[in-house]
């Protein structure tokens, strides 16, 4: 009976919390912001990272582009790098200025539409340039200071550089990904120099 | 007294709805998807569109890029066009395949970092290409078949092609924006040919 009472109390408490969230979201009469629970990294028993769910609805931060045609046909990433941060982690980052444990960045790779010019560009109604085409795999980074202590607190994962994306991935060795982030990324192994949403508090 | 009772009933009903939303969001034990209320367009008394709120947390769909250097220094849009769809409208689109009334697309313009080469590109650790820099204004489209009947049901707005973005904007004449979308965009004046998230149900 005591458990039953606790369960009822939990439902009532949950209901009260949810009511606050719900009405909080409607305060402007035109809802859009709702408190979001975090999505945290999920691993297999042997430590592989599962492909994060629902990343297309995460917070987008920017798309560096290094086409093959400008890199001797041998670009490390011949695609748009569409980079997202997990929204619950972004909420914390906005307040603290630090990426919390469990932060996930998702870099979806997206090929450009076929080239018409030697520089890889083509012409569409809006002009000559580069236009997004097919998705082409993904890379993911996860912040976990204990699990990835050997790479300064971030783990790096390749979910294929082609479609379909892998369902799970093993962490990469330091000399495959982490070294470059450690050497060149502006803040805590994240390329905030390309992402004003993460770099410029005044611009948000 | 009767009003008081209704208010209490409303709170209880709201609480029940919110509880469903709240627990629904936790069904996988690792929450991320929550039912989202739609954010609908807001207008001034004289029909200007207010700058949409919170667009950086909307659903990103793609970034066509037409740099000045590849367009004789006269690109119509010399920036990354980072395009977002309002999330509540996207939820409906996923189910129906049609953009509902009130759909908003937000195109944030983002300059590339300063060029080092005649094609506008520069070299960073990941290779030679184009890297996102400062934001540079925004264009917005809204679907409203009655309000924008003259432009086939979509209104087009320019919130400056520089920062800061305008707080509100008047609808543009048909020959300034709509004509090009009507002539060239793949689906209902939206450039779904560049956005697999909106174009390819199998790829989602």
Outline the structure in words.
The structure is a homodimer of 204-residue chains. Chain A folds into two domains: 1-35, no CATH class; 36-203, 3-Layer(bba) Sandwich (Chalcone isomerase), CATH 3.50.70. The first copy, chain A, has helices at 2-25, 87-96, 178-184, 196-199; strands spanning 49-50, 59-62, 80-85, 104-112, 122-124, 127-129, 132-143, 154-158, 168-169. Mean pLDDT of chain A is 86; it is low at 1-29. In chain A, the strands form three sheets. In chain A, strands 2-3-4-7-8 form a five-stranded antiparallel β-sheet. In chain A, strands 1-9 form a two-stranded antiparallel sheet. Chain A is α+β, with helices and mostly antiparallel strands and 204 residues long. Helices cover 22% and strands 23% of the residues of chain A. The termini of chain A are far apart.
Strand content of chain A: 15-25%
And the CATH topology of the largest domain in chain A? Chalcone isomerase
Number of helices, where a helix is a run of at least 4 consecutive DSSP H or I residues of chain A: 4
Distance between the termini of chain A: 51 Å
Oligomer: homodimer
Q: Helix content range of the residues of chain A, please? A: 10-25%
Domain Cytochrome P460 (chains A, B): 52-192
InterPro entries (chains A, B): Cytochrome_P460, Cytochrome_P460_sp
Pfam families (chains A, B): Cytochrome_P460
Organism (chains A, B): Bradyrhizobium ivorense
